């Protein structure tokens, strides 16, 4: 506050107005000589002072490498370094509002005082106007649903990086402490980013890509030398230079179940980048990529403090859930509750992971909401249950907790029993497996690959190099001309018609495209091949190949088999009903004391409520936690309500960053 004499000495204004003895006018851009101007200046200045710590945290919260180190220190007991994205998002929204608020009151004051030209005649005005115009581009696409749905992720992320420009403009906006409050955190973020980009970015020269279903791609690679052999629940940023050299996308990783020191991840087609990846991976192949990280996921911190957990997931959210289960297999009870409508993803996970083995002390419930029939593994452990339709989350969760808390129906007891509830006939599995290939890959890619395999087999026959199976069939031995049964399947290159497919080529193609999911035998293939090969030449052309595909996918052929996939699921449900039928009416009356329904019902809800009611101030469920990852707002809201009702901690991660 200055007197009129002091203001006159500065030379910007003649003095205070409206009878004021003191007013404010240290420089042209902050000159308020009347009451209204002082009020508007106070509103503008208070908002920016309030934002100073938020400015700092917006940049520090995205220092992934610094946060990763801090999460291993005792500071984690006071600061949730695993949830910095939530901090970044919340503070970003506030700063976005406050920036508009600050700019509005300054411009209103200048306009009322006929000083609006300060907006383009001063460094403060120009830099402020630039920040004012950039702010909506940075914030709105990330938080306003209507804009978020209409803009591709790549566009929104690109606009978000305008925050660097925004920070630079603020450095010129004021001559005071803002140099330190914005400059130092922004510099720390820049150094952290550059360190990660160049120091923790690894080239994977031969990553293996394959489609895991109709809507996604899986990739496998050997861990870079600077990685731990078994990274904890983590995520990496993936950059495929053959798609874009400027886009890095975050995905959860988990250990390759069949190879030591290898990692894999699943990528669902959702945005432009992931759809382009799915389009380019027409056949299983090896391609280079860069991985930046790994960085611990939010689940890593939450899992440390719990003994029993229910890891709920929807869709591709199963990937961090599986990573969590793999890391704590045999150490904690982490029960899996997965809702998914993508049949390819369900099939891939069940075939690639022995979920029954890694959840011996837990339950794994899969609620399949898709329409296509599933190609399930031959034998499912009894602690894995597959149901059609959506779950009643409260009943299911209370059922799991009640079964384990009461000790009646522990999953390890069921696992030891090893009842075979999923044993569909072999022919049925073969048909479902082949139908799956047709829905995942295009006919053109399949035919071209089969032609190439036919030519390779012919070249190998000439060189007397036995042709080995690629791993898909179960009753196939290496072929050579000394075997009277398989010799007729071998041809020399001169005998192969151009652009036609032999049985060996067809078999190799399907084996490769199945990727280890589903089963079939060469004898089944041979019978069907000879049915299609009308002229008996030993080769089929493109029309005959399309005919082969048609026979596989017709409902007529599928319906002749004895057991459908839905009947298989029904068998599991009936198995549960048999267990329930053992409970007498008297047991029902005391259900809350002695037993539980595995999938839960009103009795398990009563048991849980009664448990909390009689706890005498202690929380009997303090060693339980619920984790959720996925994009279902309805499921997240239901879990929040359950968490509040039963005082069970809930950790939510949507991986929307």
TrEMBL record:
Pfam entry (one): FAD_binding_8
Record region (Disordered): 462-486
EF-hand domain location is 520-555
Q: Has keyword Hydrolase?
A: no
User: What EC identifiers does the entry list?
Assistant: 1.6.3.-
Q: What's the superkingdom here?
A: Eukaryota
Q: Which chain regions cross the lipid bilayer?
A: 36-55, 90-112, 124-143, 155-172, 178-198
Q: Which GO molecular-function terms appear in the entry?
A: calcium ion binding; oxidoreductase activity
Task: Establish whether keyword Lyase is in the entry.
Answer: no
Keyword terms, alphabetized: Calcium, Membrane, Oxidoreductase, Transmembrane, Transmembrane helix
Q: Which GO terms describe its cellular component?
A: plasma membrane
Q: What is this protein called?
A: NADPH oxidase
């Amino acid at each position: 506050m200055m007197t009129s004499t002091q203001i006159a000495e500065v030379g910007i204004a003649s003095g205070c107005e409206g009878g004021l003895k003191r007013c404010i006018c240290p420089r042209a851009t902050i000159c308020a000589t009347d009451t209204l101007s002082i009020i508007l200046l106070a509103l503008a200045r208070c908002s920016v002072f309030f934002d100073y710590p938020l400015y700092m945290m917006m940049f520090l919260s995205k220092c992934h490498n610094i946060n990763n180190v801090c999460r291993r220190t005792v500071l984690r007991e006071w600061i949730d370094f695993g949830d910095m994205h939530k901090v970044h998002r919340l503070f970003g929204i506030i700063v976005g509002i406050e920036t508009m608020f600050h700019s509005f009151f300054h411009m209103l004051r200048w306009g009322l005082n006929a000083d609006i030209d300060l907006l383009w005649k001063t460094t403060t005005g120009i830099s402020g106007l630039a920040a004012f115009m950039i702010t909506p581009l940075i914030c709105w696409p990330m938080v306003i649903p209507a804009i978020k749905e209409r803009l591709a992720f790549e566009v929104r992320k690109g606009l978000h990086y305008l925050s660097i420009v925004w920070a630079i403009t603020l450095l010129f906006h004021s001559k005071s402490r803002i140099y330190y409050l914005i400059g130092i955190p922004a510099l720390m973020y820049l150094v952290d980013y550059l360190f990660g980009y160049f120091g923790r970015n690894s080239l994977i020269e031969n990553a293996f890509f394959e489609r895991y279903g109709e809507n996604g791609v899986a990739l496998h690679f050997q861990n870079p030398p600077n990685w731990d052999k078994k990274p904890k629940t983590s995520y990496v940023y993936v950059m495929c230079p053959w798609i874009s050299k400027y886009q890095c996308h975050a995905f959860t990783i988990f250990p390759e179940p069949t190879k030591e020191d290898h990692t894999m991840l699943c990528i669902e087609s959702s945005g432009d980048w992931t759809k382009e990846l799915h389009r380019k991976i027409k056949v299983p192949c090896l391609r280079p990529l860069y991985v930046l990280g790994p960085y611990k996921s939010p689940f890593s911190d939450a899992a440390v403090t719990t003994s029993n957990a229910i890891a709920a997931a929807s869709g591709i959210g199963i990937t961090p859930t599986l990573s969590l289960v793999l890391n704590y297999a045999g150490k904690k009870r982490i029960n899996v509750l997965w809702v998914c409508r993508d049949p390819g993803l369900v099939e891939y996970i069940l075939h690639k992971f022995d979920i029954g083995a890694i959840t011996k002390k837990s339950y794994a419930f899969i609620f399949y909401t898709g329409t296509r029939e599933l190609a399930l593994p031959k034998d499912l452990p009894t602690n894995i249950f597959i149901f059609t339709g959506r779950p009643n989350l409260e009943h299911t969760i209370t059922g799991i907790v009640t079964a384990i808390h009461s000790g009646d129906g522990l999953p390890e007891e069921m696992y030891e029993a090893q009842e075979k509830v999923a044993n569909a006939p072999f022919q049925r599995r073969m048909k479902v497996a082949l139908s799956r290939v047709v829905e995942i890959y295009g006919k053109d890619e399949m035919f071209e690959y089969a032609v190439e395999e036919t030519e390779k087999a012919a070249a190998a026959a000439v060189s007397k190099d036995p042709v080995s199976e690629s791993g898909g069939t179960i009753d196939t031995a290496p072929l050579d001309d000394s075997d009277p049964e398989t010799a007729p399947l071998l041809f020399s290159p001169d005998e192969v018609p151009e652009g036609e497919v032999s049985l060996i080529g067809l078999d190799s193609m399907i084996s490769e495209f199945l990727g280890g999911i589903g089963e079939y035998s060469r004898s089944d293939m041979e019978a069907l091949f000879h049915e299609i090969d009308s002229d008996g030449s030993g080769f089929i052309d493109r029309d005959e190949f399309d005919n082969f595909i048609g026979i596989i996918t017709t409902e007529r052929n599928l319906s002749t088999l004895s057991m459908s996939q839905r009947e298989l699921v029904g068998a599991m449900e009936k198995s549960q009903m048999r267990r329930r039928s053992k409970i007498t009416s008297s047991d029902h009356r005391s259900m809350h004391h002695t037993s539980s329904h595995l999938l839960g019902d009103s009795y398990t809800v009563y048991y849980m409520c009664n448990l909390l009611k009689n706890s005498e101030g202690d929380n009997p469920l303090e060693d339980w936690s619920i984790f959720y990852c996925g994009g279902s707002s309805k499921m997240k809201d239901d879990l929040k309500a359950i968490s509040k009702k039963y005082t069970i901690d809930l950790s939510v991660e949507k991986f929307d960053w």
